[in-house]
């Protein structure tokens, strides 16, 4: 049975639609699930995303329900089944599930590219990726684009043979490296920056990739176009207010701008054909 972890339902428009006096109650707002790729723990993701979804609910009059999955493969299963109305997904997931499940782009961070990294402990004597020859490294999941596919491809190109071990999330990679269960692991700049300072200070970046188009916030085609446009407008507006900028900063976004499908052509150009393919 598929396991999907629902942390909380965000009915952000409750006050807007509340009955007042003798007035007839307003029509119930449209409700949508908002799936978030499980790069961090479910509890942490809920803390990070809830304020933004509450704000968007107030701005649009829509009800947005936060949801995530127990791990990235389970998240992919949900996208395959088109179970999320809206979703925050990595760029490779967007390319795959735009075609497979009819997800359409809403916005992306137009100022921040996505960079894959390999991290090791700060006190490690490992100073270059050649020293990883023959090692077992931690990665979030086979199709974690910048945290798994890109670094594994770079290691392959460099002739460095490693054994991958998938540990379900970015946070799990970092914690396993900190605990010295693995000498190194794959992640992304954004998730590394979200670690508590005490943990982040124990890691160093051994290698990082070039920048690729960032994650997508996308809507399934069943979401009415008017609602998609309303959400895009609300997210583009965030950068113009102090509150909006604070919400963006909490998620490590610079700004969110309307996106087009062609924005992810750099990902398509890599020719990745499988969710589990390590070489590009």
From TrEMBL:
Q: Superkingdom of the source?
A: Bacteria
Q: Which organism is it from?
A: Alteromonas alba
Which keywords accompany this UniProt record? Signal
Keyword Cytoplasm applies = no
Signal sequence region: 1-18
Check the record and name the Pfam families matching this protein. Phosphonate-bd
Q: What is this protein called?
A: Phosphate ABC transporter substrate-binding protein
């Amino acid at each position: 049975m598929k396991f999907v972890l629902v942390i909380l339902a965000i009915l952000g428009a409750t006050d807007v639609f509340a009955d007042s006096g003798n007035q007839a109650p307003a029509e119930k707002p449209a409700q949508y699930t908002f799936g978030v790729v499980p790069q961090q723990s479910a509890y942490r993701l809920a803390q990070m995303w809830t304020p933004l979804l509450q704000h968007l609910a107030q701005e649009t009059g829509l009800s947005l329900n936060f949801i995530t999955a127990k791990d990235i493969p389970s998240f992919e299963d949900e996208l395959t089944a088109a179970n999320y109305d809206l979703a925050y997904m990595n760029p490779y997931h967007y390319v795959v599930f735009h075609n497979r499940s009819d997800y359409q782009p809403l916005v992306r961070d137009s100022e921040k590219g996505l960079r894959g990294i390999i991290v090791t402990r700060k006190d490690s004597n490992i100073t270059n990726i050649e020293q990883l020859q023959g090692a077992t490294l931690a990665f979030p999941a086979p199709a974690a684009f910048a945290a798994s596919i890109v670094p594994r491809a770079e290691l392959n190109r460099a002739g460095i043979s490693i054994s991958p071990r998938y540990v379900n999330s970015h946070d799990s990679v970092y914690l396993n490296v900190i605990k010295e269960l693995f000498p190194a692991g794959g992640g992304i700049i954004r998730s590394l920056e979200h670690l508590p300072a005490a943990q982040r200070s124990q890691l160093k970046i051994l290698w990082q990739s070039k920048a690729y188009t960032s994650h997508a916030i996308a809507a399934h085609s069943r979401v009415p176009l008017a609602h998609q446009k309303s959400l895009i407008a609300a997210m583009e507006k965030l950068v113009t207010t102090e509150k909006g900028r604070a919400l963006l900063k909490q998620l490590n976004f610079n700004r969110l701008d309307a996106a087009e499908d062609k924005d992810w052509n750099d990902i398509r150009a890599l020719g990745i054909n499988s969710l589990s393919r390590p070489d590009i």
